[in-house]
Amino acid sequence: MTATIGGLGVDGTLIVLGAADVPLEVSALALIGGRRSISGWPSGRSIDSQDTMAFSALTGVRSINELFPLERAAEGYERMMSGKARFRVVLTTGQ
Predict the structure, then answer these.
(1) What's the pLDDT score for residue 40?
(2) b/e code 57-67 from CB counts within 10 Å (16+ = b)
(3) How confident is the model over 15-25, as pLDDT tens digits?
(4) Quick check: 76 pLDDT over 90?
(5) In whole angstroms, what is the distance from residue 86 CA to residue 64 CA?
(6) Residue 95: its pLDDT value, please?
(7) How far apart (Å, rounded) are the C-alpha atoms in residues 70 and 75?
(8) What's the pLDDT score for residue 84?
(9) CA dist., res. 13 & res. 92, Å (int)
(10) Which of 24, 72, 73, 90 could crosslink 68 through cysteines, CB 3.0-4.6 Å?
């Protein structure tokens, strides 16, 4: 997450959704110079997921996926971990 601070625009906010067990180290100058901020948000409440799914259904929002058959799970995982995946990596089973 620390590496993303420099990519924030003026008045940009980094919203931390996941809880990593490592410190988030940020220079005060990086925040002040660009009027940037960091905010934490607890996610995972069921109503948030329900609202998101309802919004997606109403507006036609769909994810873009890179599909990998289960037999190529290792390849899909490597693509995701390397950062080469442009979209969500999804494993498929059967037809």
Answers:
(1) 87
(2) eeeeeeeeeee
(3) 888 777 888 88
(4) yes
(5) 9
(6) 65
(7) 10
(8) 92
(9) 35
(10) 72
